[in-house]
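Example 3.2
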Amino acid sequence: MMKRAGVAILGLGVVGGGTYKILTEHREFYRRTQNVDISVESVLVRNKQRALDLGVPEENVAGSIAEVIANPNVDIVVECIGGVEAAKDYVLAALNEGKSVVTSNKELVCKYSHELERAARRNGCGLYFEASCVGGVPVIRTLLDGVQSNQISGLMGIINGTTNYILTKMTEEGGEYAAALAEAQKLGYAEADPANDVEGVDAAYKLAILASLAFHTKVPYAKVYREGISSVEQTDIAYGKQLGYTLKLLAIGKHTERGVEARVHPVFIRNSHPLASVRDAYNAVYLTGDCMDDIMLYGRGAGALPTGSAVVSDVIYAATHSEIRYSTYRNTAGADRETKFVSDFASAYYIRLSAEDRTGALAKVTGILAKYGVSVMELIQKRDAGGTEDPMPVVIVTHGTTENCIRGAVSRINASGVASVKALIRVEA
């Protein structure tokens, strides 16, 4: 017997519009391949004309969330309005009415997933959020269903397409950050106010979700260390090329005996690493498990149809599974107190500094590094051909050390009077 499910879509922007298009155009396909008949029974949108232009029957355009959740034909509510406060109220209203919810809202899931999941459990309905992270790449389903036999020790990913596009342009065309950002805005990859993307906020929300699922604990957003790419200079990208590195904004999660690391920041990775080849606005997530070793998921991280496909995959899952599945969070308020978080990260480091072009200057710099337990792996020194006293650029790549050690060494170098640090970038294998 064919299953049936009625869907309401809240918001018909990029993701909501893509979701509506997929559900309506693929309805017969899902009947044939998934044995389920999914119909869009209601939409809630500020601009009614937008709904009508997309082909929504006028009688299916709701005037309020109360009207949506009171509709007996609606089984699943899809939240695509964005923001937090109104979205949270709408999602809770749907869950408390016993309707399963699918959301693409990363900030909502990051900040309130535990509260929402408690409401879902209490009312016997589902909460699904595949589309909240990495667009059309099924990383959440992979973590929940695909690699659950593993203890995941690490995840590393390019999970913001805007920043990856900007860094790709800077790397391949040699331009500066401002020009690459302007191009991203022109193409629609970056908003007029790009701060959430370029300062790593978007990636930090996603990492908090992914690390929580991967490590079976609660990783609050406040525990994610964050740096953006707005201060990245072409000089450092060029030096990185000489050293065999590619610069990426990476989201990194590690689960070790010391505790959980969660951080978003620019990283130099070896050109041979699979993530180094991820270009333009594409995303990828690299997972390390104790049984499977390493796997990488790759694809489009945003857009109407890629993200809409992730939303619809959750809708199909909710419609075809009688057993309700929840995430693997510890659903307790004290989960964050039970987990030890590491802020003194272990990494190698790229240091670019200006040193006085005089005898003993470089020796003093390396001596300071040694005092902090930092050993030099590679060094590039561009001495002025004219032999002037102008500061000369020096690039150092260290062996593995800790954040506290490198910060202490940098502070001492800047106070030494013989050199000043111009850039500090972490290096991952």
